Amino acid sequence: MAAQINIRDIADKAGLSISTVSRVLNGKAKEYRIGKKSQEKVIKIAKELNYVPNQFAANLKSGKSKTIALIVPSLNNPFFAEIASRINTEIRKYGYITIIGETGEDQEIEKKELQQLMSRNIEGLIIVPCGNQWEHINNLYTQDFPIVCIDRYFEDLKIPFVSINNYESSFLATKYFVDNGHKNIACIQGVKESNTNILRVEGFKAALNESDIESSNIVGNDFTVKNGYKETKHLLQQEQRPTAILALSNTIAMGCMKAFKEADISVPDDISLITFDDHPYLDYLATPLTCIAHPIKDISKKAVKFIFSILTDKKLRSDQVLLKPKMKIRSSVKAID
Amino acid sequence: MAAQINIRDIADKAGLSISTVSRVLNGKAKEYRIGKKSQEKVIKIAKELNYVPNQFAANLKSGKSKTIALIVPSLNNPFFAEIASRINTEIRKYGYITIIGETGEDQEIEKKELQQLMSRNIEGLIIVPCGNQWEHINNLYTQDFPIVCIDRYFEDLKIPFVSINNYESSFLATKYFVDNGHKNIACIQGVKESNTNILRVEGFKAALNESDIESSNIVGNDFTVKNGYKETKHLLQQEQRPTAILALSNTIAMGCMKAFKEADISVPDDISLITFDDHPYLDYLATPLTCIAHPIKDISKKAVKFIFSILTDKKLRSDQVLLKPKMKIRSSVKAID
DNA sequence: AATATTAGAACAAACGTTTGTTTTAAATAA
DNA sequence: TTATTTAAAACAAACGTTTGTTCTAATATT
Which Pfam families does UniProt cross-reference here (chains A, B) (predicted)? Predict the structure, then answer.
């Protein structure tokens, strides 16, 4: 590897001092009254030599790493992949980079990742927490470290978050089932203790309540294909088989579909289905799936904006934002009576 | 954020010099004959103070960033998302981190990302190049910078790569069409100049040739949903409508399906379809799609292993590996006669 | 003519490490 | 005792920036 050319090389070639070069390159020419010709010379030479500043040196001096960490459960889930993509793009706009950590929904891994990431002097953290333990995250918050939770969050803490109104989401979906004549509606949930799950379940119950439907059929315990599959199997064997299922994540819905297929049950003729999390491929499924869509773009933008507002204002705000969910009606719900 | 404690704090507290502390902390105690008690003291204090080394300072001095860059077209494409996920996981095992850059299939952005990433003193690069320009990439290679292309690569250059045999892939798929009685087979291609595309098209042609089918119906010019959609629309209007379509990417296939749906054409009854790139959701589509599956896990592992073997051996190898593709037969191809 | 002002640029001290070299003091050898 | 070796640790120079301060001319002011 050829030695990177540095600011001194430029200074030598231009016959100027490194401080002058640095100032020109940092756009502080006016502030420090650097002459026009000097400026031009520096810029020209920098271009010629294809100069790329050494971030480590710059960061060391300034104490800024220009790095934000993003922790998600898994990039392999299209939902989080899209989040990562959006956030990555947004962060780049600020001249920062993103380091991505994956937890695999394992809280211990989450803690380890966090430590590793911290040693990289990250300036901020955007995280989709993967469990109900919050100490390691709240510690950062109380130490005034810029942090924001997305998608999932901790209700009783002051840690800022950007998410959707999960209660409203499942309320909406459930209501839609009810309006279509469904009375025996099952809900396959994810990790029971996670707050998104709790709220979604509450919304589900509330909608049923409002419609004077008593029995609530809530099963499952994980945001995985496997859980969706297993629970659907069970549901299909109940004597009073539900006419509709609300899947609290895209992974769960995949499991549902797998089970449907094996049992040769078709959507929506034999059973109706609504899932959380939108994705283009939902349009091309055997039956295009009606879903609760997260405004991922908005969430990402808000989260990034938020981190940078903390970073620049230096004062710790504690915004907690719940965006409106949107139901994308496709054709996986049948009207019955 | 509380001020990070540094090596000097430890030195002061231990009554030792910073060099001694550094050596203990870096496991060079024996080499430099640091006394037992001093070692223990340093380690104890470091733990007490919860010392986290400043990577920037260390990196600046050592020139090592413990960072590998990964450049992909977009995380929003499940295929690349999975690659990113696998590679990220692999790289973490080495104590390194990954920075991910996205190009959006824009070569200019690719160049800029590369520059930005280089300024982070990355030690290696894994890249899915997004065009036919190779100078900026080959420059790195000739400068002995550890680099490996994955998925896409440059045939005539010595840059190492790990990919699948694209020629064989489409040959396989096309042959499968032929074996099922198809004669009028169309191929919707991606970026014409990209080598994966060229090879896939060649494999397509060769398979037809071998089967004495002359007319080859090759259309399209982009690895996008839009292109797949547009070209399918056209294909459906040809007087001799093809009975089978080979989509050279998952995005193109999505476009196909969109067009099919609009025209109320069903797979495989009205038309057969094979796509490149596998994904779990393909199983749940209206018709589960037969596809050419990349061994993503193997590709990722090999690529990462490769980067680190260059990094440690310090000698530049130029492995060029083509893995065997696998066709996953689902049910999107109909036997006709 | 002497002084003050200003534009333009250089100096030099950090930032927190790593690492080659040197110093110190104790232990061994002569 | 004096010289030599060795164990243990300190010194100090980088790494490539940023940035507060100082210097030098040239120009403007009195």
Answer: LacI (PF00356), Peripla_BP_1 (PF00532)
